Amino acid sequence: MSSSGGTLAVAAEPGGALSEGLPTPLASGPGNTAKVSSSRGGRLALRTVALLYLAVLLGAPLVMIFYRTFEHGLAPVWDAVTAPNALHAMWLSLEIVLIVVPLNTIFGIGAALLLERGRMPFKTLFGLLIDMPFAISPIVVGLALVLVYGRAGWFGNELAAQGINIIFSVPGMVMATALVTLPFVVRETIPVLREMGTDSEQAAETLGASPWQTFWRVTLPGIRWGVGYGVVLTTARALGEFGAVSIVSGRIEGQTQTLPLYVQDRFENFDTTGAYTAAVMLALLALLALLAMNLLARRANKKEGH
Amino acid sequence: MAIQVRDVNKQFGAFQALSDVSIDVTDGALTALLGPSGSGKSTLLRIIAGLETPDSGAVLIDGEDVTAAPARERGIGFVFQHYAPFKHMTVHDNVGFGLSVRKRPKQEIRDRVTELLALVRLDGLADRYPSQLSGGQQQRMALARALAVQPQVLLLDEPFGALDAQVRAELREWLRRLHDEIHVTTIFVTHDQEEAMEVAEQIVVMNHGRIEQAGTPRELYEAPANEFVMSFIGPVNRLGDAFLRPHDIQLLSDPQGEGEEALVERVVHLGFEVRVELKLGDGRELWAQVTRETAQQLELQEGQILALRLPQPRVFAEA
Fold first, then answer.
1. Phi and psi dihedrals of B3, rounded to 5?
2. How far is CA A209 from CA B72, B77, B110, in A?
3. Among positive and negative, which fits the CA dihedral A170, A172, A175, A176?
4. Which of the listed CATH numbers 3.60.20.10, 2.30.29.170, 1.20.1530.20, 1.10.3720.10 matches domain A74-304?
5. A107, A160, A267, B10: which has the highest count of C-beta atoms within 10 A?
């Protein structure tokens, strides 16, 4: 789901640029009709290729999922949605998102401020560490967590003796998801922070604002779109995370099954309606997050007169 | 409030931005820090504001040592070259920010903002966002914002540097009149000697992190302390070790009489002023500045031979 979220948002921009940005320079060249029509044709071809690519990768599979889900009418879909395990999986997925997203948002903003504004040693190393989850396969993240916190791991036994189970339960799944989605808010916030510069924060300081007031009233509003986009990416990725969570959760039906794990479980048990329905639920949740973000962005842009 | 800077040093890495800088600004004065880029003028201003910390030395505002005090406790207003607007706030909220963080009542903030917007001639634009204002309007908004908290000291960092020539000239004039009205001690940074001469009562000329000379515009022009000040504060001809101003050179039409002979190489008409590029008998070059009337009387043209009467040139002991 995370990839579909990213593709949708990115694809919207080149399309807009093609339809609005290009005609002006072309129209201003008088007596150059051959050139104009050939580049107009080129533009059309480019647009067709882009749309085809999207259709093959994203459109067709999505349409198929929706089609297969509702193939036999609404009744089986309703049954599949209200199946106890499906509902549990959805709530668990949401629960993990609701814990992971605030955690990584706070961490992300803090880390971005440190990396962009702070004077600290080993800054490069810190930045590399934050990017690690991008590079490492989620499976490896899951295995690593099991190695550290599992029964046979470094702390596993001590924690278990205190009654704390991390692996094969929700805490481990939260940790795995948090780790996998760690870089999004940081990486989306840093460029916005850099572009904003320090002038407005210093202006706030000279006007008598405390560091805390400056952060809440100047810095945070200034970077909110970067943070917001990071939050959407984090949400989408957290909802869709499969590999790391799959290893850490133990995939116990009705207990540690998130929506993606439930989809796979249904699929392997030849319950295609159940699998497709859960997949559609996942897609809708991710779409909802994207839509919410776009609406907020549009309203704010209108307000600030851009 | 009077401002004193005592033996301030500041280093950025290997770059010595300020070396033993001391200045005195009297209460209510309008002072310019003038110098080329990299001369340390902005750093000095930011140290006075508390936005940078000096490596050594002290800053006193109204006799009180504020070297260790954060910017928000210094009672200053600061205006940035690129205005530093709060882009997500309306003009009203921008100007009222300082009062709002002090938790003043809403009505008081509204009244004060209205008053200030009238002062900076932005009446009726309170509900706009900064992106809907021109550069000059944004800079006036930034000024109103700085004045809202009734600072004891107003500091402006190249306030008109990012504006086009006409708006810049207007705002300069306006800043001087504003200063006459509200009498707040004001220091502004500029690299434009004309701007400094026109606006400031007192000019501090800086170069390479040091103060070259401080004085009134007239003192600097008439009695420059050294070669740098002389050439930075106005146009200059250099003949060996000697310096002379182009408008001090007198052109005489009769080469037989007194004075040194020179060949007219080029005549440039700049409206009222005419620039005459000259070559002396020994090959040295210089230029003179004359009025249109003089140029007409002398019937100046290229290739003409003239006599020059040179004033006593200025020679500085140590260049």
1. -125, 135
2. 7, 12, 19
3. negative
4. 1.10.3720.10
5. B10
Residue B159 sits in the same domain as residue B261: no
Same domain membership, residue B283 and residue B194: no
pLDDT at site A154? 78
Contacts of B77 in chain A (CB under 8 A): 206-207
Query: Residue A208: its chain B contacts at CB < 8 A?
Result: 72, 98, 101-102, 149
Instruction: Show me where the domains of chain A are located.
Output: 1-69, 74-304
pLDDT, residue B58, reads 96
Give the Cα separation of B162 and B139 in Å (integer). Answer: 10
Domain CATH number, residue B166: 3.40.50.300
Identify whether residues B263 and B217 lie together within a single domain: no
- Residue among A208, A222, A300 minimizing CB distance to B98: A208
Question: Whole-angstrom Cα distance, residue B21 to residue B54?
Answer: 11
Contact across the interface for B97 and A206, Cβ inside 8 Å: no
pTM score, whole prediction: 0.80
**How far apart are the CA of A229 and the nearest CA of chain B, in angstroms?**
17
Cβ <8 Å between B87 and A200: yes
* Residue B319 belongs to a domain: no
Query: Which helix H or strand E contains A133, and what residues bound it?
Result: helix A123-135
Decide if B88 and A304 are in contact by the 8 Å CB cutoff: yes
- Say yes or no: A207 contacts chain B, CB-CB below 8 A: yes
Q: What is the pLDDT of residues A171-229, one digit of tens each?
A: 999 999 999 999 999 999 999 999 999 999 999 999 999 999 999 999 999 999 899 98
Domain end residue (candidates: B230, B256, B280):
B230
Task: Inspect the interface and report whether the beta carbons of A217 and B97 lie closer than 8 Å.
Answer: yes
Residue B88 is assigned to a structural domain of this protein: yes
- Quote the tokens at residue A191: 């460029």
Residue B93 lies inside a defined structural domain of this protein? yes
CA separation for the pair B49, B63 (Å, rounded): 15
Same domain, B169 and B92: yes
Measure in Å the smallest separation between the Cα of A305 and chain B Cα atoms.
Answer: 7
Whole-angstrom CA distances from A48 to A22, A26, A42, A52, A260 are 16, 20, 10, 6, 33
Per-residue pLDDT 10s for chain B (319 aa) are 899 999 999 999 999 999 999 999 999 999 999 999 999 999 999 999 999 999 999 999 999 999 999 999 999 999 999 999 999 999 999 999 999 999 999 999 999 999 999 988 899 999 999 999 999 899 999 999 999 999 989 999 999 887 888 888 888 888 888 888 888 999 999 999 999 999 999 999 999 999 999 999 999 998 999 999 999 998 888 887 888 889 888 888 776 667 788 889 999 998 888 999 999 888 888 899 999 888 888 888 888 888 888 887 788 875 4
Interface probe for B, chosen from A192, A205, A206, A216 (most Cβ of B below 10 Å), is A206
* CA distance linking residue B12 with residue B10, whole number of Å: 7
Distance from CA of B77 to the nearest CA of A (A): 6
**Residue B190 and residue B79 share a domain:** yes
**Does residue B218 sit in the same domain as residue B281?**
no
